[in-house]
């Protein structure tokens, strides 16, 4: 937050390089006043914390010192807050009244305490907040502040009220000085061990930090108005102010230091009282003598500077004469009363072509400066009355008749007690030509400026010099004039996205541009309606009238930023998908072995066998793991699918009963189908996965009774929609929407919901793969997914599936329950995973097949070449070290043209298919597979 103070209407964080030393003193004075108030407020709060948490060092500084009472700390906190409000720049009437209320409470606390002392009553304010022990150090009544503390608070409250009124400022400063003295006296008592200074009689004594805070807050009030009262002398630019600012700290500090050393010397017996007094006198003499010598030397130097200034003035007069003669402009001196020429410099004589004797004692019209005697006399009379005239473009004719354009400036000054008219004449003939060319250039520039859609402006420090209409439009202002009157601090939020203060960072960026000649960076701006938006800023310094002005171009990159975020998210999801697919592939190899052997064992024993249930649990765990890997492959868009033409309404209607059982009776499930929906082409099981995962998440987001709505509609995406959603392409889409009125999600959760294994549920309640699976399925089907959520209101998922244009319906095939089908053919088995190779060989041999196995493609080629019998089928892994399964098939088929082929892999989309959809004629077995899966696929491949 920018903190603004009173002095000259300037920000406390502005650039003060042009302020003189006196202005700086005033500037710092109010600055210190604010922070004295802040220090007093924080000190009061710390003491209250000391009472609250029983921290002795906060209550009394040292154990043998008097504690600051709780109501004293409250009064100081209120006084500090009042002083801070008064130090703000142009405090409103409400702020002033609030400051006066705090001050009144300060005075009231002191007044009530004095009443307790005077009338011997207990008003209940002493231990209103905290209890104090009856044997506390220097305390007569527990919790009651010292009487001198109470009196000082009354004075302080009145001072803070009076300082609000300009006429009362001197009185308020005197009271503040008295408050400071009321703090200094006890402080001296503590420093020198004089307890009589600390309190009044046997009453409660003033705490040491109470005394210090009175000095601080009193000083803060005095410095609040550096241009009023006796502070005017302190901040004066005269000799008195300069001396006082340098002498006062020494005169106040030296006695304290010498007195303290004196007291310590007596305390520890270094010298007797008489010797101490003598030493103090000697030290004071030495110090004051040194100060007198130093100030005398300083004043002597000031006097020498004055004499030097007089000498410089004489030299200046001589220099003026030299400059008069050497000037490159024509200069004429006229008699104020008569208007005749009394002197002329050499340049003018040469330019006009007149010798000195022909110029002197002539009038202006006689040397070709004015058209006639009338206009010349009019100009002369104007000069006598106005003391200054200027003609920016005046015709002049030289002695030989040459026409010139000149700039004519005249003013009056005193020389030797006599008024003299000085006329400066500058030849602007060539400049006029340049000016005309410049105007034409400026017109072209302005035409370009106002035609640009980017904001283009000129900046001089903290001032907008000019801008185009696009600037006002971009920032939300009605016109450029309204924008140009706006302070730059209103065009940016307090901090930039990197956390840096906008004001400080803007200054750094401008300095960089001025030093390097060009600087481009990104910036967060704020429109007139308070909306923040990003821009790309280009700064180029240009020289205008001898000053470095910044030519600035702002380009709105809001849409660019949105596209960047979407691209990064897309790349991130793609990378995670690649990882997920690779992990799933490796797990599928291992799960094929686990599930296959467990299934084999279950077929070999009966349910009555003691090992049956344990083996069955192993098989179930393997199946659950296989399901997880299938979800990973769905997210990675590497699962193999069998798409069909679907009516989404019919598919959802057929799943409603299952979905209602899934979410339970506590939540209401509403179904709102669209009329005559378009068809889509996708795997029915994938639509089932999408709805199942979305409804499970909706169910878990609802606490108690709730409502889940499934809705479909039709939509046609245009170019505008696709610009916001780069993954989308223009066309017609079926929209499947699932909404709930659950707890909703925050922004951080929304950014990660599609990451695999990310979940907000408790450990063991979710895998974190549900929404990742939905994301993968949607992307695999060239769709788009959007989510909107608001905390406490619920979540809406919208899934856009491309419309299938073909009207040919595909009927689902009725598939009988599979059984293990055996065979007698010869199979060449190729698998680089040894455990999976052994398992597959075992299954094939149990099915009755003759098996030739190879752990590498090279061994398989050699085995196929050496084997003399017939080989009916090549069963091979897809991804292997030496060559791919496709390449191996091609080589084997070249040697054995009639051989069939069955591919197997842990993932398939990127190695065997396009977008996860198998090419026609490809036989594929997804790992992990069961005995039934293997026997069925073998017969399909061999058919």
* Structural category: alpha+beta
Whole-number tally of structural domains: 6
| CA(first)-CA(last) distance | 79 Å
Number of helices: 29
User: How confident overall, as mean pLDDT?
Assistant: 78
Helix content: 40-55%
Please state the overall shape, judged from the principal axes of the Cα atoms: flat
Question: Going across the major beta sheet, what is the strand order?
Answer: 2-1-5-4-3
Proportion of beta-strand residues: 15-25%
Unreliable residue runs: 1-19, 810-817
Main β sheet profile = 5 strands, antiparallel
Instruction: Round the Cα radius of gyration to an integer and report it.
Output: 47 Å
Number of strands: 24
List keywords for this structure.
single chain, 24 strands, flat, five-stranded antiparallel sheet, alpha+beta, 29 helices, disordered N terminus, 51% helix, 943 residues, Beta-Lactamase
Topology, element by element:
Blueprint: H1 21-53, H2 56-60, H3 70-86, H4 93-119, H5 147-162, H6 169-192, H7 208-223, H8 231-234, H9 239-267, H10 273-326, E1 330-335, E2 341-344, H11 346-352, H12 356-359, H13 373-386, E3 388-397, E4 403-415, E5 418-427, H14 429-451, E6 455-460, E7 463-467, H15 469-475, H16 480-484, H17 502-516, E8 519-526, E9 532-544, E10 547-556, H18 558-604, H19 610-635, E11 644-647, H20 648-663, E12 667-672, E13 679-682, H21 684-701, E14 706-717, H22 719-724, E15 731-740, H23 747-750, H24 770-780, E16 784-790, E17 794-802, E18 826-830, H25 834-846, E19 850-854, H26 857-866, E20 873-877, H27 885-895, E21 900-905, H28 909-912, E22 913-914, E23 917-918, E24 924-926, H29 931-942
Parallel strand pairs: 12-14, 18-19, 18-20, 20-21, 21-24
Antiparallel strand pairs: 1-2, 1-5, 3-4, 4-5, 6-7, 6-10, 8-9, 9-10, 11-13, 14-15, 15-17, 16-17, 22-23
